[in-house]
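Why Pentatricopeptide repeat-containing protein? Reviewers of the renewal asked for a concrete example.
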Amino acid sequence: MPEKNVFSWNAMISGYSDNGLGEEGIVQFKRMHRNGFFADLVTMMSLTASCSRIEWPQLGSMIRSFIIRSGFDNYLLVKTALLEMYVKLKCTEDAYRVFSEEMPVKDVVTWTLMLSGFSDAGFGNKAMEILDQMIKIDEISLDSVALLGMISSCSKSGAMQQGRRIHAFTIKVGFEDDIFLGSAIIDMYSNCGNLDSAKLYFEGLKERDVGDWTKLTQ
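Here is what the prediction returned.
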């Protein structure tokens, strides 16, 4: 190919990462560094994404140190990427440290990531605290995508109490007719072993699809 530049290196790193080949993405970054190319914001984002796909928390710590040394630690996008990396690596304490101590400005994405991190790690009470804080912040506008992510997290972790709270909140903010949220709520109750609540919610849906029927008959 023509002469390599930082854009082509970034494309290689993100390409491997996007296809689940995090280790190869890290290898490409090392080659980029050895060839004298300086990382940019996109490199940092791709680097954290690559690490997220490797079950190696120590590497995550090294990447964070590199980000700080390179001066990219003040970018909200990079901090959000670090938060997501720690959540996916199940490094909940590190994730919360980034969230609480290093992110004075938080958006709906970062709040949702932290809630999912606590929920996935089995810290239901902490997840509930995050949810309560989110609800009280006027500037945080929870959309159906964010709520879907929260419900799905509760479903995977079996956090029915938290899921029930989020279910109630979806009704409060007017998303009770969202077909995708409805399906996720049924899935959450079913996975948590509460088939009565799943059936009750299903019977109240205005629109139903075959997937919802299947969840109740499995």
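Residues 76 and 133 are 20 Å apart (CA to CA). This is the kind of structural detail the renewal will allow us to pursue systematically.
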